[in-house]
Amino acid sequence: MHMIYKLCSIALLLIFTASLEASTLTWDQTEARIELKPNEEEARATFTVTNNGDKAVRIARIKTSCGCTGSIVERKIIEPGQSTEIVGTFHKGKRQGLNHNKLQVFLDNQADAVATLHMIVQVPNLIELQPRIIYWNADSAKTERKVRVSLDPRYVNEITEISYNRKTLDLVDTDDPTDSSKRVIQITPKSFSHVLRETIVIKAKGENGQSAESRLHVFVQP
Questions:
Q1: Distance (Å) of CA 16 to CA 9, 25, 58, 126, 155
Q2: Residue 132's pLDDT is what?
Q3: pTM of the predicted model, to two decimals?
Q4: Residue 16, φ and ψ in degrees, nearest 5
């Protein structure tokens, strides 16, 4: 019983010490919002932490929530009154839309993160398709499917090409009756009795020379 009491006391002391160390650290920000431009592959955000305590602390590790996110630490040991910078990096890859990534900062001998830093990165989707995948199966109505196409007018404003297999698909490109800034593509397979896997490629351009490409996937499973 005495041993259990002693272990609990040690655990409480460690928790108190960790909490005390955390309270001596101040951050200039814990959340950064960034919007990438179309040709940018990486986003970076800088978080500055200051040690307001009377003892040095050491950043042991930084755990990220995604393989697309990394970190660079300027200086791991922070003396009293000093600051250091943590640079979060985000690699776009093929990601689009809103990406919320976290960096958990751990000090020496602490099981819990002393802080969680947030990188919220918006990757522009220059050609948005709704939906991006269309399909028919044995129970589907043998009718056309409609896909709405939206362009990001900051970068592209004109569809220049729609490539598809004319031997297997019928396609009609029309104005969206509900929104003049959008287009509607109507797709119908020439046959519903055979397995079909096709890709429609949509290309667009902007006045500044920016180009974009998006892919629509079509499936028939009779």
A1: 10, 15, 17, 50, 53
A2: 96
A3: 0.76
A4: -65, -45
| CATH 3.30.360.10 holds for 127-221 | no
Closest Cα partner for 90 from 67, 113, 106?
67
Look up residue 159 and give its two tokens: 């569809």
Cβ neighbours of 129 (radius 10 Å): 19
For CATH 2.60.40.10, the residue range(s) in the chain are 26-123, 127-221
What pLDDT score does 23 carry? 61
* Beta-sheet pairing, 31-35 with 115-123: parallel
Indicate the fold that domain 26-123 takes in CATH: Immunoglobulin-like (2.60.40)
CB contact set of 52 (below 8 Å; sequence gap of 6+): 24, 25, 26, 80, 81
Cα separation of 141 and 63, whole Å?
49
With CA atoms as reference, report the closest residue to 164 among 199, 204, 212: 199
Which regions in the chain score pLDDT beneath 70?
1-23
